[in-house]
Amino acid sequence: MELRGEKMKRLNIRDSFSTKNFKFGGYAAMMTAIVLAILIVVNLVVGQLNIKIDLTKNQLYSLSEQTYDVINNLDQDITIYALYETGKENTAFNEILNNYSEHSKRIHIEYKDPVLYPQFASQYDKEGGGIKTGSLIIVGSNNKFKVISPHELINYSMNQQTFQTIAESLAVEQKVTGAIQYIMAEKIPTIYTLEGHEEVSLPGDIIKQLGQENYEVKNLNLLTMDKFPEDGDILMVLSPRRDISIEEAEKINEFLEKQGRAIFIMGIKENEMPNMEGIINSYGVGLENAIIVERDTSRQFQNPVYIIPGFAEHDILNPLRAKKLPVLIPFAQAIEILQVKKKSIDIAPLLISSEDSYAKTNPNSETIEKEAEDLEGPFNVAVAITDKWYEDNQELITRVVVIGNKQFLDPQINAVSAGGNMDFFLNSINWLVDREESITIRPKSLLSRYLNLNMFQVLLFSGIAVILIPLAIGIVGIVVWLRRKNK
Fold first, then answer.
1. Distance (Å, rounded) from C-alpha 400 to C-alpha 417?
2. Average pLDDT, the chain
């Protein structure tokens, strides 16, 4: 009996290997093993290829095309020294810096521990105040260098309600690429801001940003000078309240006729300025001295005179369009393109109001409604002018930007535009001096974007998650059960 029982057990065990359950289990185990093997192989291959994909919304760890253009044209070796204690490196910064060295053999990254090398940074401390841990020191083989402190690599803002400091944007690429451009540049462009006619002051944050973009800003009083300074690259005119003299106008015209570059930021004038307007008119545009009123509600911000103009096609605006950044212009002045102008002049509109807009010609009018003397839109709010001619078979170019507004550089207005106004201004400056590769290397936002749903969307997605998905799973389960039962 015992032998018979053992024999029956052996038969049962052998028969269990041929059951349907064993076959399905074997197939499942085999498929699991195959999938695991594929994953292991793929992981090994990807590890060898060193493939990286930046899945962050703002491409925080990727470099822009403008940066690639800069480092592709390097004519010398660049070394980036990162001052970090061993084991305390910033991983986010490291990812960005490694992109530079991986793309160009001329860029080298070296980490210097301030504890192990306490005297290393002192050779780059020009002001004698010490260089903080976490700083980046960018050095060229021409011995030019630039130090970027850790607080410059991240932009912070303060919550006005909680008074907490918030990390707003990452500026590593902006600062590092700017430093490389500074090292490569034979000359730092100088911007002269005209003074002596009750001009608007350039905001401090604009001056700071221009410095970070490798510009030097100086004041200019042409009444005390024989001619425009030799080291001047750009003339900036900030909405004077009084006219310039004939002598000053001659000096400005002489500067522009020698491939000069200028930006005129002009508000509604309170007094007649024939000499200043004569310069602007000579480049094919005129100031209407009329405030634009925008009737299209999608093109205004809370007020019909706070307009959000449309973008024309131009290098200055392409990055703003790509990032979907608006430009906000309060009390914009209409700019007219004159019928009579030199044939060598090309005028490109930049910012344009809608066809529903009109312009108030009487600044003291007591109504914002359209009156008989008001002008019909659309209007140019800003234009870019190129005057190109030839002498001795050599191409000569003068560039001018005219903006019919003085308030758009106000920090509060710029904040409402999410920095679009600042970008527009800086892009215009870079275009004037042929630095198109510098356009739009800007800080990348670190702020989280939340998904805002209306009540209908909440009910819709709740219904899908709570009702439709479980119902679909239940139906599939019933169908499978019925099929197995019928077999």
1. 24
2. 84
